[in-house]
Amino acid sequence: MTKLITLTAAGALLAGMASAQEVRVYNWSDYIDEDLLTQFEEETGIELIYDVFDSNEVLETKMLAGNSGYDVVVPTGTFLQRQIQAGAFQKLDKEQLPNIDNLWSVVTDRTEAYDPGNEYSINYMWGTTGLGVNVDKVKEVLGEDAPMNSWDLVFDPANMEKLAECGVHFLDAPAEMIPAALNYIGEDPNSHDPEVIEKAGEVYSEIRPHIQKFHSSEYINALANGEICVAVGWSGDILQARDRAAEADNGVTVEYSIPKEGAQMWFDQMAIPADAPNPEQAHAFLNFILDAQNMAQASNYVYYANGNEASQEYLNEDVIGDPAIYPDQETLDNLYTTTPYDPRVQRTVTRLWTSIKSGV
Questions:
Q1: Which of 55, 223, 240, 245 has its Cα between 20 and 30 A from that of 254?
Q2: What is the DSSP letter of 174?
Q3: pLDDT band at 276 (very low <50, low <70, confident <90, very high)
Q4: Which residue positions does the secretion signal occupy (predicted)?
Q5: Does the domain formed by 128-264+336-358 have CATH 3.40.190.10?
């Protein structure tokens, strides 16, 4: 899906004065309040061309091929690191980012693992990968004591066999789903040892017949509509499903939980490609996003936590006060992060994931 945000009359006038400047942004689908895009154009006079993608792999293909034509892109941390190493990004000119002081050290300290010194990127959103459940259906199938806050829910074959009756979807994201399986069996989720990674295949071989589908976005509506009863997915997506179900008043109650055994913490970072056609305008867009109220508006819309400490006073209470979005310190301490695989290990991961999805 491609979205071209049309300038308002006032914005068009400003744009004409600014010699028809433009900025091209490539972001995840359903990941911003579109009112912000119009507001950016009106405030800056810069025309915004805004396209969306659904997987890191799609973005990475464009980035590593070069000449993407984009000025701002939003890779997840592990992919960002690999792309920085490949020379895909330019360092930020922080003189052009006066709002960068709004960033939150709790997040920037962690994103340094992917972007040392945070020289190439700013955090847009962060979250966790966990469990979305249709509470009533899961209890109906597994009983009142269903382990809805544990990876046992989906990695225990006995549970999955029963849950298959009401439908289970998994993320089509090997960089997240393989570490989750390793963590579940007590292995290092960040292991780069091919022999350890292969153990994830053993976990999935037992449950694969009961997984209805792997994908990156369909589970939002499927969960909200009651078409499935469990989704392993990204926190904000599942919270969107929760709210869509509530708005529809369709009798579906969706909850998100961070499994007690631990879960992956991920970071979506905004960065400027090395060959960006409009780097000055790209910096203007990043600085706009770094504004505390703008960043809060984005989080209030998508129900994801962000890396902007100054935005927190403007967040809705059902965002800042929800431990599924902003976890307490004990939960934060139990989250893990991963680092990108080198090409040799990536081949192992890709082959293994292909095998898991095909059920072979």
A1: 55
A2: H
A3: very high
A4: 1-20
A5: yes
